[in-house]
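pipeline/complex-builder :: batch 7 item 3
reading input block
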Amino acid sequence: MSDAFLSAATTLLGQRGLSRDSEVMNPWLTDWRGRYSGRALALASPASTEEVAALVKLCAQHRVPIVPQGGNSGMSGGATPDESGDSLLLSLRRMDTIRHWDEDAQQVVCDAGVVLQTLHQAAARRGLRFPLTLGGKGSATIGGLISTNAGGTQVLRHGTMRAQVRGLEAVLPDGTILDTLAALKKDNRGFDLKQLLIGSEGTLGIVTGATLSLLPQIAARRVLFVGLPSVHQARRLLLLAQQREGAALEGFEIMPRDALDAVLAYEPAARDPLGEPHKWYALLELVADETQADSLQKRVTSLLETALEQGLVEDATIAASETQAEALWSLRDGISSAERARGPAVQHDISVPPEKMPAFIEEASAVLERQFAGTRAVAFGHLGDGNVHFHLRAPEGARGGEWEDADGKAISAAVHDLVTEWAGSISAEHGIGQMKRDELGRLADPATLSILRGVKQALDPQGIMNPGKLVPLASRAPAA
Amino acid sequence: MSDAFLSAATTLLGQRGLSRDSEVMNPWLTDWRGRYSGRALALASPASTEEVAALVKLCAQHRVPIVPQGGNSGMSGGATPDESGDSLLLSLRRMDTIRHWDEDAQQVVCDAGVVLQTLHQAAARRGLRFPLTLGGKGSATIGGLISTNAGGTQVLRHGTMRAQVRGLEAVLPDGTILDTLAALKKDNRGFDLKQLLIGSEGTLGIVTGATLSLLPQIAARRVLFVGLPSVHQARRLLLLAQQREGAALEGFEIMPRDALDAVLAYEPAARDPLGEPHKWYALLELVADETQADSLQKRVTSLLETALEQGLVEDATIAASETQAEALWSLRDGISSAERARGPAVQHDISVPPEKMPAFIEEASAVLERQFAGTRAVAFGHLGDGNVHFHLRAPEGARGGEWEDADGKAISAAVHDLVTEWAGSISAEHGIGQMKRDELGRLADPATLSILRGVKQALDPQGIMNPGKLVPLASRAPAA
């Protein structure tokens, strides 16, 4: 059976398009954080949408499961095959053409395999900008970003990947091509299938291309670093900044003193930008395109004066140069590494309604530190999105692997329980993949689970699209 | 069977909640344009989400089809039951409570039956604004607007209803309640079910409540009326205005001289705002909240100077008062009535990719006027959204009903064929309902149809949710 399939697939894709060589395949069979590993029948690298469609048809015929993969930089094991070795790993990386620029309409059509950083650079050469960005931009592909509805640091102003997608091209589980690349601003012809595919992690089809919206390039930016007495004041500062400069405010990140201490201890070049210590810090980035650049400095200064007058901030600094701006950002970007160096911790990617985040951080930290003696909660990140990285550090002296094995699962379950109580999400931006599928099954309400399963069954009745990911297994006793 | 159902439903909803009185029911059994009429088992008017849920469970048990209805101001017969009299008409109008304001987060939670104008007024009293608006605002309900993903005149800047919905509450076809009212900015827990329900016209479930985003109130506006040599110049002017004042530009409507003539002839008070006639006209509206109001006049004047310098516009006027602004808008808003008074015409609600709209208007007008001798094409409306009202006027002397019966269907089919060739939509904002279901079935690609049907079948296996609407019937010979 698999011989017949492999022979047909090789005929279809040619030598370059299909490999069973373990040296070629191995780098793509483990996720980049080394948490998940699997095996595969072969690595397919089709060169066009038509080849993807023909290949999926072949897979459907032979009932070969498909694991689509972009840059293999996902956080939840969504692009790693299982151990069975029955699946075909389908890489989109060879499809890396930027198909068409439309400067007037400020949009671009590109293949799914285009790397985010490549798109950034190509847009910049045209005086344009693709606003979504994240740590893995050097490997993350457009198709992967769409399939996981990726977030990042610019979501506050520009939304997640969903908000950037104007049109989509995808191959469905039966090998037909869904083409909505023509970007319509108004289209009420029934259920929005594009929205259904965005964030579906390859379980309903394979994204092969997209029409993405672009913005004018940034002409000026200002980065502020402020000290605050509490995380509630951070929320008030955010509201003031949004009210005054909502169109310019692109970043609003928070961190507690504790996290700043970790960075100052870990990064030799890091300096505390403020004279005295504060309980909380916020980093604000405001940007302007050419038409608004002249007034930016004045507006930022005025915003800060108001914040000081209203007693929202205790102290503040505005970066005087790009170098200083980068130094401020490196304090924020350095937290993950500094925290890792500090010792073992269990990490969570969670959201609650933004207005509740300050209260959640305080209550959840207290509850969890009490429940798990000796642990320490650290929350930092995207306050404006109601999304923080929520770490629980191991007690002093605990040994990483052992402690995580013993307590990690219980801690994560407790965090997810709390988040669910607060009407939040156990996956704000990293998706479900294989990592959180059981937790989603445990915590999602029955209506949601029943629709997830129903839609999956309707679109992929053979279950060949990225099996074992995202959609929780049905419980053994079916609902009446 | 229906007796048992009616008795149980009456027990559930009480006298006020269920009526079979024809005087009570009749106004809601014909759509407001008088194109579609039907009959119903009864009119149910539940008072809460819980009552809707219990009622839907009862309907599922007895297999009673449900036709959900908001303000009965739809354009495609989507809220009118069929002739059988087997369906329950389920009105959401009694659920008209604005549940909760959050001024800080700039959002409001309200029942599905809240009327749009009521929401506008209530928001204004709090210094806030709900930007979506349209002609039927005095009757259209939030639930209906969501179920049809309504558009209107502010889409250019703020998007359709989809873009205003942060959270949703809905009753699914089995009577379970899907509650995503807690508005998360980031949530990657699988397929976005909220997006699936928006625009599904009550075929997948009944919207019972929503969390909607709000904006600061408008503090100033400027309305411009410009004369243009061609519709292509209108597009260039739009691009200039978006580049310079994208955040302020809320309206960009176009009309040909021909349509202006119709309004001038029909409305006694109407005056041509420009001295000489021009081939095309555009109406621009730019607005500012309090923080931007001071500079608006200067920016609008500067924009107009640039447009004149670049030769984009032939002549222009800026309304000097709110009265003048309203007079300019009434020229645009008067087109539909003036065109109706002028004689019979077939109307279409279409979109193409915005950048193609000028070429489409020219080519489609020429093709159709040639194909249907004596007709005259008139296109006007939302150029910025790539969405125009596309009318074909009957030949001189044709008699309305007769001509429409004889030629209307062929003309609409020809328009829809052209739109489909141009990768556009046969329903830009009015939805499919019962009016365009056959056309959708004729013109949608097989992949789209198969997903529409599959999702419908998965969520509503009994087919009780608004049967006969939106989802085209499967062809008799099922696909292999």
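note: Chain A touches chain B through 76 residues (CB under 8 Å).
queue -> next item
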